[in-house]
Amino acid sequence: MHSIAESHFPLNSQTLLVHGGRDPGRFAGMVNTPVHRGSTILSNTMDEWESRKLPDNPMASYGRFGTPTTRSFETLICNLEGGHRSMAFPSGLSACTHALLAFLKQGDHVLVTDSVYGPTRSFVTKFLGRMGITATFFDPAASANIREFIQPNTRVVFLESPGSWTFEMQDIPAIAEQAHRAGAVVIMDNTWATPLFFRPLDYGVDVSIHAATKYIIGHSDALLGVATANAEAWPMLAAGGHDFGQTAGADDLYLALRGLRTMHVRMSQHWQSGVRLAESLLEQPLVERVLHPALPQDPGHALWRRDFKGASGLFGVVLRTGDRHVITEIVDRLQLFGIGLSWGGFESLVLPSEPEIARSVRPCPWNGRMLRIHTGLENVDDLISDMRQAMYRAAQI
Description:
Blueprint: H1 13-19, H2 46-51, H3 68-81, E1 85-89, H4 92-103, E2 109-113, H5 118-130, E3 134-138, E4 154-160, H6 172-181, E5 185-189, H7 194-197, E6 207-210, E7 225-229, H8 234-243, H9 250-261, H10 263-281, E8 287-291, H11 301-307, E9 314-319, H12 324-333, E10 337-339, E11 348-353, E12 370-374, H13 380-395
Parallel strand pairs: 2-3, 2-4, 4-5, 5-6, 10-11
Antiparallel strand pairs: 1-7, 6-7, 8-9, 9-12, 11-12
């Protein structure tokens, strides 16, 4: 069996997921790259030891800098993203924070979308401020108008489209163009779409980040992050990751590789079931609006349709009420939706939220509470029925 690197024709992402990042010939015919656990990596001779040194990392021959399991995962992600190189991190938040730290220093300024993932917002406001790095949060709908917020010392523009709480879409190419004119690096959290439905580097982004914990692993049983850079941004990203000692565990990497093999099939169902569930909720009297960019009535639908190839199973529902008793009745009556953080696994989840407390630029344009819903791989008719019965019971209060 030949490596896909020897392929004489371009491969679809569906095929890359099956064949990428593995080489049975190197590992006694094993279909999957084995788990490599280790710290010390021995050399047989001084010449071999010297040959492993890299110009920017003379200690590269050490477990912290990766194993064959690490390389298999990073190679596959990089091919899916269309990037130069990828680097694994122990969590999605770690990938976000260390990508920022790789490009920022004291006295710099960073622009961040106001719809950013909550823990990333917390890192920007609490930690970067202590380092003497200032931040400005901007309206996700700013598009090319982001130039109004760019300062002479702006070094990074951080995006997330759609936001994983309020689901606004961003005009990535327009924002990237303005950022690059100012000499800033563009970093994007692309966890919602995965590389199957959006490839940020094709639209002007310099570093694409995924919380591999979610759709990449897909089974809610491991934590992992990954960042992929273009050729220009890679040296800074790599140096930053290495200097902070970031290392992903071999077992988590193996679980991510396992999850990737079925991601195309899983994402197809997440997408189709998520849209059907979202559409059914539009009919519920307790629902004020559904936040899902794949729905034609969503404000971000035109951007989603222009740039994205699909959607994940994560979306939001704004209720007409903020009554805690009603919300509790909905959540507690659900039989197929777990109550929990994260998303991207095979199971459906629901989580009440107050997104307005995480916004600093423009308040959310609704008064009711929100439910964030992740559509899992259960039969979608069962999910719709479950949501209907819970909504019906709550409406009687």
